[in-house]
Amino acid sequence: MRGVRSPRPWCCAACVTCVTTRSPPAATQRSNPASAFNIVAESLRLGDFTADQIAELYDQHTRATGQEFTKDAVDRVFELTQGQPWLVNAIAHEITFKMRATGSITAGHVDEAKERLIRQRA
Fold it and tell me: Residue 58 contacts by C-beta under 8 Å, 6 or more apart in sequence?
């Protein structure tokens, strides 16, 4: 592949990538080799969290790091997400890892994380 170049000098080298969800030998043994989405596992839908379950989940972070989510923050997360698991996790991840909030996490942090997530997906 290193020798493949465009005849135009301003263009970068061509690149080919093969992405698979299985090792090459297993990929050739699929029942429908034409489909890369032939997954042999079932998906699982989590139910929505209650406000108490969100508090319990975020309390695991508090116990592990000492960084507290205030009651107002937990209530605001529940208000915004209605307990949808991906959103509950995304907001906490945005605050703790992306925003690198220090000290107690407040409803203000939650609102900022919400806006950041919306902008990232716009």
Answer: 69, 73, 74, 77, 92
Measured CA to CA in angstroms, residue 20 lies from 16, 33, 90, 102 at distances of 13, 12, 26, 40
Q: Which two tokens stand for residue 6?
A: 């465009």
Cα–Cα distances in Å, from 32 out to 11, 18, 24, 26? 37, 18, 14, 12
State the pTM of this model: 0.65
Which residue from 75, 64, 67, 62 is spatially nearest to 110, judged by alpha carbons?
75
Please state which of the ranges 25-34, 37-46, 94-103 shows the lowest mean pLDDT.
25-34
Report helix angle 85-93 to 107-120, nearest 10: 100
Beta bridge partners of 69: 105
**3-state SS, residue 70:** coil
Closest CA to 112 of 103, 122, 100: 100
Print the SS3 string covering 90-108: HHHHHHHHHCCCCCCECHH
